[in-house]
Amino acid sequence: MIMNKASILEWEKLRFLGEGLWGSVYLAKIVSHSSSSIPSYVALKLADANSSSTLQLEKTILDDLKGCPQIVQCFGCAFSVENGKLVYNLLLEYANGGTLEQLMEVSGDRMQEFEVSKFTYMLLKGLCHVHHKGYVHGDIKPDNILVFVTKQEDGEDEYSLKIADFGLAKSTSCDNAGEVGIVGVDIWALGSVVAEMLVGKSLWCSNVQLDVMLLIMCKESVDKWLEILPEFLSREAKDFLRRCMTMNKNDRWTGDRLLRHPFITQFHGTSLCEI
C-alpha cells in the first residue's frame, strides 16, 4: 500500500524499462487507487527519498506544463517503502512505443522527410510550450523523446512523439521566455535530433562527421558545414538545420518561427501551425 496526501495507491511492478541519471523506471500496473485520472498502466520513475530532489523538481515542472499533448503526462507522486528504505515514486505516462532512439534503432535506416517533418512539428509544439512557460529542457535527445503508437481503423499504426525527462530543466526567468537566449540550447539539440532522423545516424558518431562539429565550433560558415551533409537531403531540410544549428545562439530561430519554416509547412500546410 502506498499513501500520499491526495490518494491511496497500490501497484505491481511488471518489468524494468530503463535507468536514468535521476532514477530507475518500471512499467507498473495500478491495482487500486482513489483517483479516476490514473490509467491502468504507468511508467514508474523512482529514487531513494533522500536523493529524490531532482525527481520532485521534475514533478513540479511537469505539473506546470500540464495540458500539452506533446509533453509526457504526470499523474502524481507517492512514497513507498522498499527493502526497508523510503522511496519516492513519480507516476508518468507509459509510452508503448519506447523511445525515439529505440524506434530509429529498430528501423535501421533514415526516415522519409515527410515523416521527419511530422515528428519535428510535434517536438516543436512541445518545445514552444516549454519555452512559453518559462523553462528550457536542457537535454533534448532521442532517448528523452517518447513514442506512442495508436492502431487506426485501417489497421495502420499512427505514431506520435512526446518530450520527457525534465531532470535538467531550468527556469528561464532571467531571460524573456519568448526570446531565443538560453532556449537556443534546446533549438540546437532539436536540430541534432532532426538531422539524426533525416540521415539515419548521429552527426557526431564518426570521425568523418566529427568534421561537422569542428567546423561549427570553429565558427566556420554554416553553409560550409552543411555541404558535408548527404546530398539526398532537400534544400528545405538543410535550411531548417541551418536555422537550428548556427553557432551564435541568438541567430537561431525560435520554436514559433521554425513552425512556419517550409520544411514543416511544405508537407502539412500553414494551417497545421495553428493547431
Automatic annotation (TrEMBL):
The keyword ATP-binding applies. Keywords: ATP-binding, Kinase, Nucleotide-binding, Serine/threonine-protein kinase, Transferase. GO terms for molecular function: ATP binding; protein serine/threonine kinase activity. GO terms for biological process: signal transduction. Belongs to the protein kinase superfamily. PANTHER family: CCR4-NOT TRANSCRIPTIONAL COMPLEX SUBUNIT CAF120-RELATED, MITOGEN-ACTIVATED PROTEIN KINASE KINASE KINASE 19-RELATED. This is Uncharacterized protein. The lineage of its organism: Eukaryota, Viridiplantae, Streptophyta, Embryophyta, Tracheophyta.
